[in-house]
Amino acid sequence: MDKLRAIRFFCRAVETNSFTAAARALGVPQSVVSKGISALESELQFNLFNRSTRQLALTEAGASYYEACFQMMFEMDEAETRARHGSVAPSGNLKIGLHPALQWIVCNRIGEFLTAHAGVNAEISHTNSPTALLEQGLDVLLRVGGLQDSSFVARKLGSVNLRVYTSPGYLRAMGKLQHPRDLTRCCAIIPGRLDEESFASWSFSNGKEKQIINVPARLVLREGVGLAVSVIQGFGVVRMYDIAARPFVENSQLEPILQQWSCGREPVLAVIPSRRKVPAKVRAFIDFIGPLLR
C-alpha cells in the first residue's frame, strides 16, 4: 500500500464529504479511493468513518487522525512550494483578517514583519469568519476556533484559553471571588456580534464539577474590540482569551480570577482560501506569526 497516497485519499474524502467527489477531484476511479482508504484502516487497525450512515461521518479516532494528517499534508505542500518558488520574494498588499483577541500580539509585532519584507504592505481587519476570505478578499485569516467549512485550508498555529479577568480596583470593591456563583453579583462586559442576542452565560469546569453561570451583562462590545480596555476602568468582569489579556496582566492592570476553573480552550488557525498557489507574502506571514502564537 502507498500510505501517503491513501492519506491523500482520506483527507480529500473528508474535505469533500464523499468518496465519489474525492475521486473526481483527484482524477482516479472511486473504487481506487475506497480501496485505498480501506487498506489504510486495515493498517491503522481502527475505522476512520462510520459506515452505518448515508453520509460520511468521521469516527472520533478518524477525526483526530485527520487533524494530524491535514497538518502533515499542509506542511508537505508548503515545503514543495518553497522549494519550487524559494527565490520569489514576498511582495504586494497583504490583507489580514484576525480575531480581536489576537489584535495586540499581531499589531505589536507586524512592524517587524514589514521591516523584514520591504516589498510587502499590510491591511488588517477584525473578523473571525472564514467567509471573509472571499467576501472581503482576504489573503489569510487568523481564526480562533475550529473550522467547519472544508473548502478552506487551515494550519494550526497554537491554542488559547478562556479565563475570567477583572481590574484590581473592582476586585477590592467586590471582595473575594472564589466560585463561579460569586459572579452573579458582578457586572459583565461581553463581546457580541451584530447578528446575535448578547448575553453572558458562562460555562466552567473544575474536574468533574460543571457550572453554567448567567452573569448580569451591563456592557456589550460589538465584535469584541476593547474588552480589556473597558474592564481596566473597574466596571466589571470579563471572560476573554489569555493571549489578549496577557499584556494587561503583566502590567498589573488586570487580574485573573477563578484560576482553578476552566472556561474552555480553542485552537488558533491560519486559514487561507486554497492550498494551491499560496503567495509568497502569505507563506512568509504565516511563518513569521506562527512562533508568536504557539
> So how many helices?
10
Shape: globular
Average predicted local confidence, pLDDT: 85
Low-confidence stretches: none
CATH class of the largest domain: Alpha Beta
Q: Main sheet, how many strands, which sense, barrel?
A: 9 strands, mixed
Strand content: 15-25%
The CATH architecture designation of the largest domain is 3-Layer(aba) Sandwich
CATH fold title of the largest domain: D-Maltodextrin-Binding Protein, domain 2
| Derived structural class | alpha/beta
Beta strands, count: 11
Order of helices and strands: HHHHEHEHEEHEEEEHEHEEH
Alpha-carbon distance between the termini?
35 Å
Query: Nearest-angstrom radius of gyration?
Result: 22 Å
Number of domains: 2
Please give the share of residues in helix: 25-40%
